[in-house]
């Protein structure tokens, strides 16, 4: 039977951005180009985990078309505060702060040590190849189950000198042991879930330009064009990094090509791109590739679950040993998982979970 429904408002409401998207005139950060714009690129470590012991940039600096090179030893970079990827999250949610430009990388494809600005992307690539670098390879562990083994190599010794466990959570509600002994049925199983990419439609592009503006104190503003869902997560740290008032930081947010919660995150390019623009006196753009954009992923875990229940289907007890991969440092660990049983009639719940470092992308 066809039912006649009523509704509130108009049935033919057109989105404010529908025409631009349909006509192809929508302005995305990936298409932003400024006059005299330079290109910026990071050095990427050829190893999954490594440290730069020494770097000589003289050959790269002499390459025609190179306008600026900054390294982890740069005084201005060393003076900048470390950041957590997500700006302003509670301190106990951070697995370890990261440097704006570090001599060490914790995972595959991570930016490390050096950034260059040049007239073309090709010149940037040539300059990075001319760097004379002495490398030290560091231990790497991909599987979180291997990371918790007794003699596993330490991945973050300055944060966890004894093991790779960032956090252990152990709690119990009710009397789990008694509930299992009195239950009619028991189910016991292992479950796991793999890394999950956020599948953003548009990799990050950052365009930075320092421009004269007599309407603000200091007479200069930092203009940033980038896709983001949270202006505050970009402008607040930039104000701190460059020691300028918020009034001098202007974030332009064009259309964003799909983020699924990914884009509020502050990245190194948000900081290094303005620094290169400041050093050269020209606008600079830094583009993430699709591979770069996978630097943060959804979580990976391995769980052993035991559930007690009666013939009427009521769960009487739940017991879980959980192993969560938080990847490299810099982001938020997982909440505990067994709390989901609070949504059932179950009153007897136990959890033992370990959240561990690996050499995989950072988890959030």
Please give a structural write-up.
The protein contains eight helices and 18 strands. With 364 residues, the protein is of the alpha+beta class. It has a seven-stranded mixed beta sheet, with helices on both faces. It has a five-stranded mixed beta sheet with strand order 7-17-16-15-8. It starts with 17 loop residues before the first helix and ends with a strand.
Give the biggest sheet: 7 strands, mixed
CA gyration radius, whole angstroms: 25 Å
Structural class, by secondary structure, is alpha+beta
The helix/strand order is HEEHEHEEHEHEHEEEEHEHEEEEEE
Q: Name the average pLDDT.
A: 86
Give the overall silhouette.
Answer: globular
Number of DSSP helical runs: 8
Strand order of the largest sheet: 3-5-1-13-10-11-12
Distance between the termini: 47 Å
Beta strand count: 18
Helicity level, as a percent range?
10-25%
Please state the oligomeric state of the protein chains shown: single chain
Task: Estimate what percentage of residues fall within beta strands.
Answer: 25-35%
- The low-confidence parts are none
Secondary structure layout:
Elements: H1 18-23, E1 38-44, E2 50-56, H2 58-61, E3 66-71, H3 75-79, E4 104-105, E5 111-118, H4 121-129, E6 132-137, H5 144-147, E7 165-173, H6 176-182, E8 185-193, E9 196-197, E10 205-212, E11 220-225, H7 232-241, E12 249-252, H8 268-280, E13 284-287, E14 296-298, E15 300-309, E16 315-327, E17 349-357, E18 362-363
Parallel strand pairs: 1-13, 11-12, 14-18, 16-17
Antiparallel strand pairs: 1-5, 2-4, 2-6, 3-5, 7-17, 8-15, 9-14, 10-11, 10-13, 15-16
């Amino acid at each position: 039977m066809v039912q006649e429904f009523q509704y509130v408002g108009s049935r033919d409401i057109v989105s404010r951005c529908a025409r631009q998207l349909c006509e192809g005139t929508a302005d995305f950060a990936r298409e932003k180009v400024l006059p005299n714009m330079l290109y910026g690129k990071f050095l990427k470590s050829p190893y999954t985990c490594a440290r730069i012991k020494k770097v000589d940039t003289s050959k790269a600096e002499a390459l025609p078309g190179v306008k600026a090179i900054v390294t982890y030893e740069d005084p201005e970079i060393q003076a900048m505060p470390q950041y957590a990827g997500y700006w302003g999250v509670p301190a106990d949610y951070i697995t370890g702060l990261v440097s704006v430009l570090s001599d060490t990388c914790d995972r595959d494809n991570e930016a490390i040590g050096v950034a260059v600005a040049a007239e073309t992307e090709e010149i940037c690539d040539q300059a990075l190849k001319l760097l004379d670098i002495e490398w030290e390879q560091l231990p790497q562990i991909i599987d979180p189950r291997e990371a918790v083994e007794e003699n596993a190599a330490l991945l973050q010794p300055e944060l966890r000198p004894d093991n790779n466990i960032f956090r252990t959570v152990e709690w119990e509600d009710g009397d789990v042991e008694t509930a299992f002994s009195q239950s009619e049925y028991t189910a016991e199983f292992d479950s796991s879930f793999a890394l999950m990419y956020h599948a953003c439609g548009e990799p990050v592009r950052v365009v930075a330009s320092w421009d004269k503006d007599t309407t603000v104190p200091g007479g200069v503003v930092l203009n940033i064009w980038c896709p983001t869902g949270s202006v505050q997560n970009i402008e607040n740290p930039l104000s701190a990094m460059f020691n300028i008032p918020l009034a001098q930081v202007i974030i332009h947010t064009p259309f964003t090509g799909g983020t699924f919660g990914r884009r509020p995150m502050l990245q190194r390019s948000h900081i290094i791109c303005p620094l290169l623009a400041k050093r050269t006196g020209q606008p600079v753009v830094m583009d993430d590739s699709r591979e770069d954009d996978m630097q943060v992923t959804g979580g990976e875990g391995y769980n052993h679950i035991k559930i007690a229940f009666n013939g009427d289907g009521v769960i009487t007890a739940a017991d879980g040993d959980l192993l969560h991969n938080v990847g490299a440092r810099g982001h938020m660990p997982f909440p505990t998982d067994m709390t989901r049983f609070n949504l059932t009639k179950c009153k007897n719940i136990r959890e033992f979970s370990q959240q561990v470092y690996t050499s995989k992308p950072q988890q959030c």
